[in-house]
Every structure is written in structure tokens, then in C-alpha cells.
């Protein structure tokens, strides 16, 4: 799979039986059902979602060691019934005009490498990857242009699912990349509050293939694309739920005899790699720590409100302090590329600090650090003494820096990742001018990336005490 279009490490662009090969069927235009922004109410899209879930969980069942009795997987070209990369796997099956398909390819896969003609299976995998990538690119285009009569993405999504069954039959873990892209497309198209339903299939496959955030290679990068979707959902749940894939499966297995503190230290060392941390991995580490923060919040909420037993014997104060120290250790160990190249204060008409980063990984990584600190401070034990001179113990200090980072670094991939951190920070802001500036940010995210963001602004309007739509009208 060396020639598969790369997924960047920050996730930019996310009984025994075999998954069945889908029967061929004509594409059903949803024109009479809904507009491009109403996928959640589109009957055909809902059918396809259920179809995809069935395929993924069928594949997981076939990968279960307790039920898997088949011989080693057959080559992908045999599983798909294709003798070459151009037989049966072509874009002529869909009615989308070639000019638009080329456009989706250009915006979705600018760094595709030439596929080796000596490996038919690789050629097929690359081709299928492009098909799924096209579905995502088409959906992004439709949302950015507010196209209410374009259904290219739905047709490509349908064809993508048809191709998925044979790939899963081949039991090739590289299919994780395309499954993640379909999950990202679903999250872009429907209510993010139903996030668990869209990542459960991915979580089950990562678990079955034993792929985690430190597996190495391109599958490690695919995992962190998935992890960002998990983190987004955990934040949306507001302490009610943790990640679908348990955090202990985000990293390699640790010795059973190790104490919780020893396991924390081993995981930290795995990310640090003996003190040498790349910007990409440092950003992924921030994702893990922020997810760990959400997990701590969820565990404590369930313990206090539901009386659930926590599998960590340490008192909450100790667990909180250890995680807080991990976050500060992350900050202290940032490699040079993760440091800002310019920082200014506020005042003189400047509402939020200007914090400029030269490396894309630094933008989201630092923003997630500040978001995690806000969540941590919100559940700080009363007995924990706060040093009066440390700004790191000020939630509002972190909140303003979350906003300042997005304003100073309008990188599209990081703007998508910023939606939930901006919501966390925005709840702490009290001045009208701050509210207007945050509203502008959410509007920029939606208009420039095609990713739904204004639903989170509506949540903030309620938190701030405005009437629905009032803050948007002030922009």
C-alpha cells in the first residue's frame, strides 16, 4: 500500500460470515426527498448508512479469532473479481460527469503517487481509495457552495459502499483509510451529536486489526485521523460519554503488573521516543491527552452521579494531578516547530492574543492543550492549591489563547479541528465583542471548509443568553 495517497498525521485530509458483495442497483436520486444540507432526513442516505454499518460489523465478525476458520486471505484482485485495475473498478458506473469527477480528484488527492504496474492489488486499492476520496470531496464541495440540487456525493457514497465489501473480504488493514474517510463524510453531512454511530464501525475494525496510535507507518496516520473524530464526539458528549475505542487501545498493550502511574509513564515515553519528538507525533500526543481529559471527566461524572466503579484505585485528586502534570510536561517538551514564532498580548483594540505558528501540526496541538486545560480546571479538586502567579491555572487565559490561535492561523484543516475547542473556550467569554469575534470564526469555518460549525454557535448563543440568531446578525 506504499502508493496510497497519504493521510497526514493530523488526520486532515479521519456467527462467522463474510461481508457480502452488494447486488448491483441503479442510483436513486434523492431530489424529491431533501436538499443537500438535509442528509439526516434523506431516506436513501439513511439506508446507505445502515448498509455500511452492516458491512463493517460483518467484517469484524469474520476477523474474530474465535470464529475465523478460513484460510489466509486471497489476493485483493481475486476477492474483487478483477483481473486488472481497470476491470469493473471504473467511474463509468456512476452518472457524475467526468469534468466534476476530475475536479473532485484534484481537490481531494493532490499528492497521488504513480501506482506500480507490477502490483494489481495495489492498483485496485489506490483506485478504490480515490473513489471514496471523491465521495468526500464531492460532499465538501456541495456544502461549501450550498448546492441544494447536487447529489454527486450521495451517488459516489453508494458506489463506495458497493466496493467496500470485496475489500473487507480480502482482510487487508489498509481498507481502514477508506473506512475513515466515509466516517468523516458522514460526520460532515449529519448531526454530529450522533457521532458514536459514525465511528463505531471504525473502532471495531481498528480493534480487530490491532492498529493503534503507535503502530507505525501510514496506518498510524490513519488512526490519528480516526482519533480526532473520537475526540470531537467525546467533547460533544460533555462528560456523559468517553471514546468508543477505549483509550488503552489507542496505544500498545502495557504490562498487566504495571501500576496506573507506571503505565502513564510508559505511554508518555512511547510518545516521546526517548526525548525526541516530531511535530506530528507531538500533535497526536495532544489529541491523546485531550481525549484522556474527556475520559477522566466522564469517569468522574459517572462515579458521582451513577455510582459506577472506577478501575483506577488512585483517589480523584491524585488522578487529576497526574494528568495535569502530563499536560504541562507536553507543553514543556514541545519541539521547536511546535513553538509560536510570534505572540502578542491583548489591548489596544485587540480582543484575543495573536499567536502565530509556522508548522501546521503546532496549530491544532497547542489549541488542544489549552482546551484540555480548560476541561481540567473545570473539574479541579477543591484541595488542589493554585499558584497565584501562573496563568496556566486561569481558564479564561486558556480560552483567549484558543480563540487567538484560530484567528491568527486560518489553516482549513485546523479550523475544522478547532470547532470543539472554540466551543469550550467560548462558554467562558463574557464580553459582547468577544462573542462577535467567536461568531465570525464559526462562520469562517463553515464557509471555507464546508464543515458544519454554526450549530455549535447556536449552543453558545444559549449559553451567552442571546436570542437565536442574534449574535450572527451582529457580524
From TrEMBL:
The keyword Nucleus applies. Residues 65-84 are annotated as: Disordered. The keyword Nucleus applies. GO terms for biological process: positive regulation of transcription by RNA polymerase II. InterPro entries: Fun_TF. Keywords: Nucleus. GO terms for cellular component: nucleus. Its main location: nucleus. It is found in: Nucleus. One of its GO terms (molecular function) is transcription cis-regulatory region binding. Pfam families: Fungal_trans_2 (PF11951). This is C6 transcription factor. It comes from Penicillium frequentans.
Amino acid at each position: 500500500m506504499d502508493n496510497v495517497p497519504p493521510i497526514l498525521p493530523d488526520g486532515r485530509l479521519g456467527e462467522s460470515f463474510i461481508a457480502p458483495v452488494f447486488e448491483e442497483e441503479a442510483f436513486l436520486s434523492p431530489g424529491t426527498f431533501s436538499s443537500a444540507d438535509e442528509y439526516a432526513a434523506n431516506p436513501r442516505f439513511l439506508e446507505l448508512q445502515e448498509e455500511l454499518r452492516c458491512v463493517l460489523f460483518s467484517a469484524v465478525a469474520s476477523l474474530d479469532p474465535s470464529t475465523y476458520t478460513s484460510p489466509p486471505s486471497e489476493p485483493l484482485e481475486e476477492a474483487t473479481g478483477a483481473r486488472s485495475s481497470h476491470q469493473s473498478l471504473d467511474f463509468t458506473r456512476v452518472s457524475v460527469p467526468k469534468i466534476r469527477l476530475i475536479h473532485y480528484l484534484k481537490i481531494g488527492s493532490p499528492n497521488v503517487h504513480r501506482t506500480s504496474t507490477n502490483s494489481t492489488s495495489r492498483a485496485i486499492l489506490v483506485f478504490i481509495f480515490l473513489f471514496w476520496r471523491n465521495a468526500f470531496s464531492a460532499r465538501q464541495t456541495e456544502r461549501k457552495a450550498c448546492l441544494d440540487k447536487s447529489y454527486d456525493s450521495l451517488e459516489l457514497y453508494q458506489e463506495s459502499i458497493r466496493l467496500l465489501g470485496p475489500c473487507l473480504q480480502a482482510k487487508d488493514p489498509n481498507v481502514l483509510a477508506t473506512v475513515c474517510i466515509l466516517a468523516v463524510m458522514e460526520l460532515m453531512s449529519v448531526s454530529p451529536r450522533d457521532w458514536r454511530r459514525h465511528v463505531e464501525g471504525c473502532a471495531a475494525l481498528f480493534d480487530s486489526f490491532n492498529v493503534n496510535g503507535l503502530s507505525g507507518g501510514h496506518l498510524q496516520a490513519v488512526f490519528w485521523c480516526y482519533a480526532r473524530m473520537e475526540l470531537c464526539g467525546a467533547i460533544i458528549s460533555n462528560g456523559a460519554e468517553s471514546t468508543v475505542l477505549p483509550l488503552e487501545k489507542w496505544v500498545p498493550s502495557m504490562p498487566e503488573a504495571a501500576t496506573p502511574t507506571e503505565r502513564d509513564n510508559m505511554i508518555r515515553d512511547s510518545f516521546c521516543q526517548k526525548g525526541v519528538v516530531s511535530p506530528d507525533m507531538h500533535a497526536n500526543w495532544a489529541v491523546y491527552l485531550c481525549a484522556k481529559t474527556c475520559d477522566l471527566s466522564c469517569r468522574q461524572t459517572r462515579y458521582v452521579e451513577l455510582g459506577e466503579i472506577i478501575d483506577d484505585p488512585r483517589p480523584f485528586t491524585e488522578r487529576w494531578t497526574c494528568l495535569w502534570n502530563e499536560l504541562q510536561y507536553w507543553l514543556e517538551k514541545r519541539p521547536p516547530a511546535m513553538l509560536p514564532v510570534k505572540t502578542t498580548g491583548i489591548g489596544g483594540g485587540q480582543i484575543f492574543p495573536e499567536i502565530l505558528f509556522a508548522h501546521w501540526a503546532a496549530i491544532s496541538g497547542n489549541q488542544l492543550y489549552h482546551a484540555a486545560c480548560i476541561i481540567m480546571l473545570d473539574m479541579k479538586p477543591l484541595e488542589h492549591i493554585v499558584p497565584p502567579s501562573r496563568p496556566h491555572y486561569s481558564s479564561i487565559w486558556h480560552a483567549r489563547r484558543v480563540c487567538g490561535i484560530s484567528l491568527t492561523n486560518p489553516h482549513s484543516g485546523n479550523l475544522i479541528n478547532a470547532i470543539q475547542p472554540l466551543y469550550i473556550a467560548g462558554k467562558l467569554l463574557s464580553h459582547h465583542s468577544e462573542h462577535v469575534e467567536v461568531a465570525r470564526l464559526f462562520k469562517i469555518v463553515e464557509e471555507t471548509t464546508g464543515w458544519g460549525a454554526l450549530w455549535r454557535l447556536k449552543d453558545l448563543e444559549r449559553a451567552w443568553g442571546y436570542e437565536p440568531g442574534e449574535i450572527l446578525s451582529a457580524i
